[in-house]
Structures are given as structure tokens and as C-alpha cells.
Amino acid sequence: SCVIEVPIDNSNDVLEIDCSQLPEHASEICDILENEGSALRFYRLFALEYYRQGLAEEAVFALKRGIANAKANDQTAKVPLLNFLASVYVQKAKAMPATRPAAASAAAGDGGRDMLLQMATALLTEAERISRTDPNTYLVKGMLAMTKRLPDAALIQFNNTLRIAPLCLAALLGKARALYGRRQFQQALAIYQQALTLRPTGKPDPRIGIGMCLYRLGHTDDARRALKRATDIDPAAAAPHLLLATMELNEIKRKVDPRINRKAADPATLEGALAEAAECLRSAMAHLQRAYELQPGNAATLICLADRLFCKSDYAGARGLAERALGASDTMALQAEAHYQVGRVYHAEKQFDLAYEAYQRCLAINERHSLARYGLGQMQLQRTDMSSAEAAFQRVLERHPRCVEVLRALGYLHARLPNTKAKALEYYEREMQVLAEEAAEHAKGLGRPADDVAEWFDDANLFLEAGLLYEGVSAKKARRAYAVAARVLERKGCGSGSDDAIPELWNNLGVLSQLTGEPDEASSAAYSQATERCIRMLDDVRARAADRKTAHPSRPSNELRRLENTLATTTYNAARFYEHCDLWERAERLYQDILTRIPAYTDARLRLAYVAFFYRGDSEGALAHIGQAIEADAKRPTAWLMRGSIELHRKNVQDARRAFEHVLKDIAKHDVYALCSLGNYYLAAGKSESTRAASEPNSASSAAKKARDLSIQNYKRALEFFDKCLQLDERCAAAAHGAAIAIAERGFATEARRLFQEVRDAATSGLGPLALCNPAGELVCKTPGLTTAAAAPGAAPLRLDDMRVGCDVLLWSGINTAHACVEIGNYRQAILVYEACVKRIHDTTAALENAGSACDADRLVISALEGAANGARPEGAGATDAPVAAKMSKAERSERQRVTRDLRLYLVRAQYIQAKSTKDVNIMRAALQEIRALCAEADISIPEAELKDDSLLSEDPGTGEDKKPDAESDAEAGAGSDAAGALALAGNGNSNDAAGTASDGKKPRIRLSPEDSLLLFDLALVEQLVAQLASDMPISQRSLQDVDTATSDLERSTTAFTFLASWGKSMQKKHHKLLYSPRLASERAGYGKSLVAKLARKRQEQVDFERQRQEQAE
């Protein structure tokens, strides 16, 4: 034992004190030292002995007494005591559990960790003030910085220590640790090796640091040897065993990961790789057990053991160890990891609220903990907090962009959010790409061809989810996704004869194979193959069910029923395909086959009625089929709804009304389709009465008043039905759209615009096809176009009738939104919406043409993975979403062309009105460009023979040189209106129209329809207004070219008006109907001639101005 000799004051004798028999309280020693007037170094010596014996509080007491007894004229002597006391505080702080910043203030008042570090900082500041050359001051400051997790600051202090004492072992070890914290592993390794050379048997053992650096540098075997050597030198050290266990566990991951270890990828060597992994696991557990025995309170060891118990599903043991680690951890990182282990245990035990709290505590300490962030996102998903879950997954993805689990979670999340299906597909595609790249790289490493990486996918759900989303985007991509899912299932033993097969998948493959642009014959053969596969699977299940009948009496019945329903769905879908490919006999045979096997399949009977009426024109036969369906099930609303729809097509509106009312009164009073149909009925009745009132010569007559009253009543009834629809289904766009039309027809354009916009926004938000469709699949609720009051003189109002394109609620709500914007004077917004509608119909038409099959809002791929998979009735699986593979018909193509033309007319009208009100010549030029394009596409122009007739140009149609037409404002308001067509003179003013000039030189017959002549009138009007606006522009804002262009446009306009005035008069003499006033055209021609003269003067002024400006510039 150590003996300390204390000199006795005023004597040569010494007092020997045996350190093994120190007093229990340091106050006795301090009293002796004070009585003898001992030097301060004796206080430090006794404090060191107390500290070595584990009596840290007595050591602190002795150091404080020594510092208090320091003489004022010898402050340097107390520097060692200050440094020692600061180092004791630092060590005590390190031994305490780490606390979050929020808890620091609470712990400060009772000697908490942060308070100890603050006191140590104050002591070191005092020591540095007294002496700046003591290396121990800088050494303890470095230790303090490392405790605060500030490796950069610690490195500065350790370098200061080594500058004064180059061989200070503690400073060398501290510097190496700081470099390790800065991830400078090579430099840290060199310092550790230097420390080992200086003191091979010193503590802490530098070999531990050497092993950690070597491992980080990728030298795993050397690291393992260094750590094993450390265990040989000091068998009681727990840290080397813990590190060796961690290395072995990481080695297991490498041995079983086929992307790293070729043995794990090759089935021939997989067993050997698993054996090596098992050996590593035994070694790891042995080291963990030894570390736990040596240091049971080590937080890192407890966390590792908790992780292993979790992997063994020993959740209670794992949670107990993790909670013990919470109380023993001395760093924030270990605190965070312990919270994560607790959270994942609660997660596995389905205690989601507790798991949520544990993950949050972990992230409050370490916000970069990716696993905790991922777990928190899962808990937020479980709570349906989608926005927070997405934010959590996105933060993980930022750090790990190739993490397939996060990509899958984000895909799953967006697939279930409205209007984010495209985002979901993006994440699924990224996951597929990552998996494919890894598979290709792995195959390359094994020397195998990587042509088909699908064999490396293990999860069919990824492709099933993606396939469901692809159905509404791309039939080819959906088919490829389902094909990969099928191959994965077959490789995993889930083929056609497996209990775990998904027979609905084969149905979808059969349907989607028809939508990839193949010829009809090939598509029919492919669908037949899919049907045969379903039959074969059904036969296999029946055979297995017979063998298991005794053991599982209920399972075969349910499975057979599901597969029989799936077969019915597949047959129904094939019949729908044949139906839309004009193969009526095949379709009818399949429908009859369904009815033979399942007589209750009413939808097959209704499809027979549909074929009879819509494709054969046999209304009586169709009604007979519907009658049979009603006899079989009089309470089936679908049959009555189809009867009402067919009666509407036959113009038997009262019979149709009675059918819809029967549904509401006797079958389903909340049937949305019937309610909406009756709303449409009363809406049409209101329009009819409104038109009759407007046609009365005397608006004040009793007949006109009665018609207006009836119109108002019908509109109110329509609103009642539409309102009831929306109460039952707030996403029913057809009802909202009809209500908005009724409101607009009554003159409330502002309210109607708001409602139209809401319908449009709902359709855009991904809520699915919002048109109200008949359960039979084809009969759609009409959505008539809203017309506006403004019209050109003598023009009939333009109405947008809806055929197949009318099912596009997004399109029609957009058109009517723009109409309403025009009515309230918001022309700029109207222009934007019209342009969007034109683009939409162009895009959808192009998609139909390119795909070769219809895929509009009411013609979607069937999603049979739902109804039949859940044991639904056969009709539920395919009745509402049956596939349609018909090519776009001539009627539909013609309808789309007509709607496109009308939309462009609306656009020109809005541009015209806005340009005239704002005097914006650029907008008017845009209107001119659009209307010229329309005329050019329709090949409409003044016959060339008429242009050569000088009498047309010499005629004086005007009433005065500078007088504008009396009805100018009315005419201009009608340009491009609902009634007015677009206008289209050829660009050079002399192009040929469809009539052209006869080859024999005879004057051709003028073949202009009333609509064509109105287009010419509007074109001439816009050209004249462009010239007028250009003429009125300030001279500094226009150019000579603008004036010349305006003059050219004006000449064409005057020529057109002159022709239309003459041609119109001749047509009136023959009692032909005109949509414009020849008198107004004559007045316009006269005004144009006066404007030509005005432009000539403006041109000369422009020439003089530009010449003067050029001279000034020179």
C-alpha cells in the first residue's frame, strides 16, 4: 500500500499516513494538512487516492479545501487542483445518463450532467487565467469538448497539450479519438499506433482504437486481430468483446446478402454460406455474453442484446434490456438507440401508440436516426396521418435514395391519396429500377446473362400494386406489371395449381392483352387462352377440394364459389370485348352461356338488351330482355334504369320519367342515377319552356308569362333532384354539373361559375370517372352545354351536344366554367379555361387514335382483383367496370371534331371581347390567328371567281365614309360567340375553297353553308378590328410593318364584307336562311373602305416618324 509522508510544521519529523487506511471522511485529512500548513500538492495527492478508491465525493471535498487554502501570492500552485477538480466533474458527467436539451434545465438544479460540465468549464477558465503553459489544463479542456461531442474543439485543445508535452499519452489518445469522431480514420490510426509504441500496456488500451480504425478502413481481419489481442492483454475489458460481437453480426449480413456474397446467390453454395453465417452468430453471441458478464451496466451491450432478443421474437426480454440501457447510457446516441429498440418492440407487439411515442423520443434526441424515422412514418400511416407520414418517408429517402422499403411505403401511400396516382407510380418505378439494377449487377458478378431480371424479384405485391395503377395510364405497362407478378408467383410455387394463386390476376392479363394494339383476331385468341387458364385452375381446385372435403368442409365451398365467380367475370369481360369489336354473335353466345350457368347474372341479360337496342336497333327486343330481367328480379334498379334510358333514346320522355320514378318510389329512393336522370328531365323541360317563352312575339303576353313560370318551376324541381344526388354522393359530378347549369339558366352566372369550378377541381383531383354511369356500363347521363345570352344578329345559339365525349366531366365542366366567366366579364380566365379544354380534347383524341381502342373516362380496364377476390356476387365483379376495346367510331370521331371546332369558336369569342374591351391588339391578333386556322382547316374562303368580280368591289355598300355600322357593338359582341362560327379566310386572301374554280373555266356554283358564311363574317370582323386597333395605337408603340399588315388585313376584310353583302342579298331573295345580316355586312364594308384611307395617312405618318427617329439615333 502507498504511504504519504506529511511534514510536521516547525519540525523535521514527518507524519506517515497509510493510504489503505484513509479516514472515511476527507475532512480529517484536510484538518491535518491545514494544521501543519502543508503545501497544496498534498491536497491533490490525497484527493487522487480517494478518487482511486472510488470515493469521488471525498476527492472533490479535498480539492475544494485545497483550492480554498491557496495563498494569494502563489496562485500557480492551485492550477493542478483546479485541473484535477475539473477532470473529476467531467468524469462524473460522462457517467451520468445523457439528457435531452429540454431536460437539461430540469437537471441543472440537482447536480445534473450539464451543471457538472458548466462547473468544469468555470474551473478550467480559472486555471487558464492563472497559467497558460500548464498542459493539463488543455488536456482537460479537450476531454470536456469530447464529452460535449465537439471533436473539432477537442482536437485544438489536444494539439495545444502536445505542443507543450509532445509525449503526453492521454493527449495522444484524446487526439486520436477526436480524429475518429471527424471520420479521419487513417490519421487516427497513426496516432493510436504511436500511443501503443509509447506504452504497450497502458490503459485505455490503444489496441481498441486501432481495431476500430482498421474496421472503418475496411481491414476487417486486422481489426479482429487487434481486438482479440486487447482481450488477451486485459481479459476484464468489456469493450473489445462488444466490438468483436458487432463485427461478427455485420459479417453475418454480408455472408447472407446475395448482392455481396456470391455463395449466397448461387443455390449450389448457399448452404455453405448459411453455415458460415451460423458460425458467426455463435461467435457474436459468445462475445456479447462475455461483454455482459464483464460490464452488465454497459448501455451499448444492453442494446446489442436487446436487438438479438428482438430478432428471436423475445419482445419482453428485448424491451427490458432496452429500458435498462435508457438508464445506463451516457451519450445521446445510445439514448436514441435505446428509445428506438423500445419503439420497435412496441411496434411488433402492435402497441402502436406506445411505439409512436418511443420513435418520437428517439428522433427528439437524434433526428438523423433513419430507422426511427421510418418507423414513425409507419405509425403515422397506421393513424391515417398521410401528410406527416409522407414527410417522414421523404426525409428518410433524402438520406437513402435507393432504399426500396421507403420507396414502397411512398408508393403505397400515394396510391391511396387522391390525385397522386402518378406519384405512386413514380415511386414504384424507382423501386423496380433499383431492384433491376441490383439484379443485373448481381447477375453480372455471377457471370450470368441479365436479359431477364424479372426472376430476381421476390415480391409480387409490388407489381400487383403498380399494375392496378397502370390500368388507368397505360395498358401495356399494366400488362407487363401483371406479367412479372405472375412469373414471381409461379417461381414461388403460386402457379395455377397453388392454393395461394390469384386467379383474378389471369383475368386482368387476359383483358389487358387486348388493349395493347394487337389485331382483333389475335386479341380474341389471347383472351380465350386466359379463359382456359381460369377453367384449368378451377378444375384443379375442384380436384383438391374433393380430396380435402373431410378435413376442411367449408374451405372448398368458399374457394369454388370465388373461382366460379371469377370465371363468370372473365366470360363477361370477353363478351364485352367481342361486343365492342362488332362480334355480336360471339358476345351473345357468351352472354347466353353465362345465363345458362348462372341464371341470376342479370347484367348479362341487360347486356343482351343493350346489344339489341344500341347495335341492332331492335328496341322491342331490348325491352323484352329488360322485361325478363325485371321478371327475374323486379327490385333490381339496374333494369328499370336501362328501361328509362332506352325510352329516353326513343324520345318517350314520359315513359322514361315513369321508369325513373318507379325506381325512386318502389325500389331505391336514394338511387343516384334515377335522381340525376329526373333532374336532367326537369332541366330539359325548363329549357324547353324557356325557349318557348323567348319565341313568343309578345314577351308580356300571358302565354309567355306562363312559359316563364313553368320554366322556373322545372328548374327548381331539377335543382331539388340534383341537390338530393349530392346529399347522397358529394362526388357525383353529373349532379353538380346539372345543378350548375340550372343555376346558370336562371341568370346566376357567378354562382354557376363557382359550382362548375368545383366540379372541375373534383374531376382533376383523381376521384375517378365522375360522369354518372349506368351500372350496365354505357348509358350515361347527358350533360348539355351551357349557352350564353350574347349572340350575333340573326344567329342561332350554339349548343354542345354530348355523345361519347360528353362523358368527360372534366371537359364539360371546364367549358361551362369558361362560359360563366364570359358571362361575368372575366374574359382572361375564360380564355385560359377554353385553351385547357381544347388541349384536353386534343390529347384524349390522340390517345384514342394511338391506342386503337377507347379508353376515355367511361371506358376503363376492369379491376377484377377486387370484387371476385372478396367473394362478391358475379355481377359485381364485372358489371360496372367491364373492358371496352372498341375502336373509335366514325360518329365519335366526327363528334370530337365538332366539339373541338366549337371550343375554338368559344375561345375566339372570349379573345375578341377581351381585346376589344382592353384595346389589346395582341389578343385580337391571337383571335385572328385562331379563326384563320379554323377556316383553313375547314377549307372555307370566298370563291376565287367572286374575288375577280370587280362589281363586288365597286359597289357602294356603305352609308357614309367614316360612319361605323349602327349595330357595331351587337355584331362585334357576336364574333365567335356560341352562335357564331370561327372565321377563316385563307392567309393570302386568294386561296381556293372546296368549290374552287372549275377546270373548264365556268363560274363555279357558290357552295357556302349558313355556318360557313357566318365564319367568313366573323373572320372579316376580327380582321377589321385588328386594323382598327393597330390604327389607334400610339405612333411610338407600333411599326411600319404593323401598319402594312393591318392594311392588308383590312383589304381582305373589306373584300369579304362586300362579298357577304352581295351574296347574302341574293340568298335572301331565294328565301335561304342566313345567320348574319347582309345590311350589316354592307355597312362594315363601307366602314372598312374609310378605314383604309385612314390607314394610308397613318402609314405616311409612321414613315416620317421612323425616319426622324433613325436620324436622331445617327
Automatic annotation (TrEMBL):
PROSITE patterns: TPR. One of its GO terms (molecular function) is RNA polymerase II complex binding. Pfam families: TPR_16, TPR_19. The gene is CTR9. TPR repeats lie at residues 169-202, 204-237, 336-369, 370-403. Keywords: Repeat, TPR repeat. One of its GO terms (biological process) is regulation of DNA-templated transcription. SMART domains: TPR (SM00028). This is Protein required for normal CLN1 and CLN2 G1 cyclin expression. It comes from Coemansia biformis.
